[in-house]
Amino acid sequence: MSTNDTQPDDAEEISREEADEIIDEIERRRSLQGLAALAVAVIGICFSLFQLALAARSFTFTIPLPTVDLGLLTVRPIQISLQLLQANAVHVGFALVLTFLMFPATMGDGPLSRRLGGAVDAAASRLGGSNPLSRVLDGVRRAVRWAFVDPDRSRVTPFDVACMIVSLLAVVYFLTEFREIRDIRAFGLESGRPITGVYSVLEPLLGGVPFVSEYSYAMLLGVLGVLLVLEATRRTLGLPLMIIVASFIVYARWGYLISGNTPFVGLLAIPQFTWPDIIQNLWYNTENGVFGIPVTVSVSFIYIFILFGSFLEMSGAGQWFIDLAYAATGHRKGGPAKSSILASGFMGTISGSSIANTVTTGAFTIPLMKKSGYSPEFSGAVESSASSGGQILPPVMGAAAFLMVQYTATPFREIIILATIPAVVFFFGVWVMVHLKAVQQGIGGVDADTVSLGTHLKRGWFYLVPIVLLLYYLIGARLSVSRSAWFTLVALVALIAFIAAYSEQTRAFLLASTAAIFGVELASYTVAGVPITGLLAGAGGAGVPLGDALAVIGPRIGWYAMLGSVATMIVHADVQSAVLDLNPTVQTAAESAGERTGRDLGDNQLFRVGTFVVKSMEEGARTAVPVVIAVAAAGIIPGVISVSGLGPNLTSLLLELSGGSIVVMLLVTAVASIILGMGMPTTVTYIILISMLATPLVEFGIPLLAAHLYILYFGVMADITPPVAVAAYAASGVAKSDPFETGVKAFSLSLNKAIVPFAFVLAPGIVLLREKANADELPLREQYRVVNFADLAELSYSVPEILIPVVGVFLGVVALGATVIGTLYADVPKPERAVFALSSLLLMAPRLLSESVFDVLGLAGVSVSVNALLLDLTLRGVGLVLFVALTVRNRRKASVEPAGPSGEPTTA
């Protein structure tokens, strides 16, 4: 048990409402009520339904719409077929509308608002409040506040409504005037009709206005659309990113003014583009700009996985995973912190957001860490450090992983394979550090009784089924990412419905009804070759053999289980599952709906399951909005780089500035990733930096996938790097600790996340990449591949290239833990910590040290030629000798000296 029982009373678990308030405050979201809240819910559900339709049927699907036929209401399917640009436009349109609903334009606390208010007050004090000018200025201030300002984050302003209307007009234009858009893409924006040509009703009003007739409606919508994306970026992601994106647009227009003869900077000179050229490429293009590759990836992959995570969270899996972590490690030395690491890793499978993961998991884990003896700052650091790793942990990872699939043309299953070892190393490294801190301070496990691991698994084993299915679909069945997510999502909903309907009283009826539905469908196919719905509608023909019928309906078993579960919950309305604990948000929503309708719906299981589905779709949309805006805005940057031809010039500039040193290039990339990623989503950082830095890294001989993963790791690192450290700041709000100190500790706990990327780009075997046999004949981007079983069986390759580097990385993070914490078995003196640090570097990334030495020798005019693999193994061997010697010395010290505040030997 803990030796520190003097924790403050504030180490209490915070409520879900308080956790939500922390997230809303950090992300500056509105807390809406009434009609506005209903609008967010309805639009969010429609957004999710649209994405589900795309996942199920791709870009051609049917919608059953009610129509009037001879005075009777009938339902007829309306087929919708979308082009990629249209689907992307609808996707971004939903996100824009939700952004203007959920995020205020200003709360009146910005410099512009303060200056306007100060000017009005100054005029009133000089001229008097009754002066006409003072009254006019005061009226202007009130009008501006009414139109733009939302000080309490609680109301939708007229400016928000105007932005939503323009967003809708843009989407409608994409859906109804796509033939004209095709012509525009071929002949330019000037070929489009003016607004009076599109809406003839406006001819009497605007027909004589020169500006209106001079520019096409497409040009007008393009300009407004790009401005709306910039405004949405400012609201959701902050002013710095908006300025960065806007500066690239300005550069696209006036970058031609840079003289090509200027040293270094001259490489940034580009051809001259007009505004119509720029807007056409940024707004009416699926290769570049707002609707480019990042948004395409969001439409195809990212949103459906966010939705999957939302369904998993609303099903109660989040709390179950937290409890699973405590059941597995809660009673061990430093148990609460170790449980926090596991819980954050599990939650990373559900949530790709460092902030949301930190707050939702930390609301439970941080108070327990504080009670066990960890300081508030260290507790917050552990939670934020582990939570930031959710974006690099397979199988789901974060949105950037799906972008990596598209940018590198690599199957997602291979991304999972190459990302697994570094992710495990990271979480192992944090685990080592919290263990050593527990050894140092004599911290034990949790005081409270926890259920056994076996009992907990028996109660919620079904939460693991969707994750196992996802891995099967991705790796075993080799389905596409979107199809894998769709099938997994259907299976998850079917499983939750089945568990909700299952009890001792309903078991027989549930199984019988599901079997009956399956049997009727099977009989319909064997008799008429169509589903039962088609047979009842008069369709059908020759039957199919039983085996073929089973092959058709077998994959649909989830849908039949859903129908059987619904039938069971209708017949047995009072059924209560003994093992299913839906997220409290679902229960609250069901009870709230019951209060509004005057009925007791909170205990109705069918209504609760329906609420679970609807709430999951709404929360999925809310979570996805910042991600969609991020990829839409960030897509502008690679769009400008591609269209302007800046890419090769930028590569040449970076190679020249690096002086041919791979170490300098890696350090520049790391620093740029961290600086750019401060306060920005990892997705944005990844998109920007791979556009500018991925090619230079590949030019140095680094494998393409390793270069992309390197950039991703340092983008994630930015979430816990001071002075911004958004995840650490969120954790400090829960831990009630000093934000900056929490960030410093989080950064130190994540140091292995900063060294591991150097390790795997310089030793690609760590991420299971191998150079192809004919690499010299291939382009740089195609010279490496993911290893297979034959490679692993080839011991002459796998032992020196994979096994030894991987073992070295794991030992290296232990040495790094002793360096950072200052404890192994006993206290580690500063001189020994320095040697531990050296051994850590030699074990993890020896080539980083050797290349640095070669660079220094090169500056002195000395050229060295060595066998790279032999030198690498030799340096790792030196690091191992140092590590073993220091560990044995420290172990002997622990056997003769008591350490720690308890006075007991601090054996690990």
Automatic annotation (TrEMBL):
<feature type="transmembrane region" description="Helical">
    <location>
        <begin position="802"/>
        <end position="826"/>
    </location>
</feature>
<feature type="transmembrane region" description="Helical">
    <location>
        <begin position="485"/>
        <end position="502"/>
    </location>
</feature>
<dbReference type="InterPro" id="IPR011853">
    <property type="entry name" value="TRAP_DctM-Dct_fused"/>
</dbReference>
<feature type="transmembrane region" description="Helical">
    <location>
        <begin position="80"/>
        <end position="105"/>
    </location>
</feature>
<feature type="transmembrane region" description="Helical">
    <location>
        <begin position="35"/>
        <end position="60"/>
    </location>
</feature>
<feature type="transmembrane region" description="Helical">
    <location>
        <begin position="509"/>
        <end position="537"/>
    </location>
</feature>
<dbReference type="Pfam" id="PF06808">
    <property type="entry name" value="DctM"/>
</dbReference>
<feature type="transmembrane region" description="Helical">
    <location>
        <begin position="156"/>
        <end position="175"/>
    </location>
</feature>
<feature type="transmembrane region" description="Helical">
    <location>
        <begin position="624"/>
        <end position="647"/>
    </location>
</feature>
<feature type="transmembrane region" description="Helical">
    <location>
        <begin position="653"/>
        <end position="676"/>
    </location>
</feature>
<feature type="transmembrane region" description="Helical">
    <location>
        <begin position="237"/>
        <end position="256"/>
    </location>
</feature>
<feature type="domain" description="TRAP C4-dicarboxylate transport system permease DctM subunit">
    <location>
        <begin position="613"/>
        <end position="769"/>
    </location>
</feature>
<feature type="transmembrane region" description="Helical">
    <location>
        <begin position="415"/>
        <end position="434"/>
    </location>
</feature>
<feature type="transmembrane region" description="Helical">
    <location>
        <begin position="869"/>
        <end position="888"/>
    </location>
</feature>
<feature type="transmembrane region" description="Helical">
    <location>
        <begin position="557"/>
        <end position="575"/>
    </location>
</feature>
<keyword id="KW-1133">Transmembrane helix</keyword>
<feature type="transmembrane region" description="Helical">
    <location>
        <begin position="683"/>
        <end position="704"/>
    </location>
</feature>
<dbReference type="InterPro" id="IPR010656">
    <property type="entry name" value="DctM"/>
</dbReference>
<feature type="transmembrane region" description="Helical">
    <location>
        <begin position="710"/>
        <end position="731"/>
    </location>
</feature>
<feature type="domain" description="TRAP C4-dicarboxylate transport system permease DctM subunit">
    <location>
        <begin position="224"/>
        <end position="539"/>
    </location>
</feature>
<protein>
    <submittedName>
        <fullName>C4-dicarboxylate ABC transporter permease</fullName>
    </submittedName>
</protein>
<feature type="transmembrane region" description="Helical">
    <location>
        <begin position="291"/>
        <end position="312"/>
    </location>
</feature>
<keyword id="KW-0472">Membrane</keyword>
<feature type="transmembrane region" description="Helical">
    <location>
        <begin position="751"/>
        <end position="769"/>
    </location>
</feature>
<feature type="transmembrane region" description="Helical">
    <location>
        <begin position="212"/>
        <end position="230"/>
    </location>
</feature>
<keyword id="KW-0812">Transmembrane</keyword>
<feature type="transmembrane region" description="Helical">
    <location>
        <begin position="461"/>
        <end position="479"/>
    </location>
</feature>
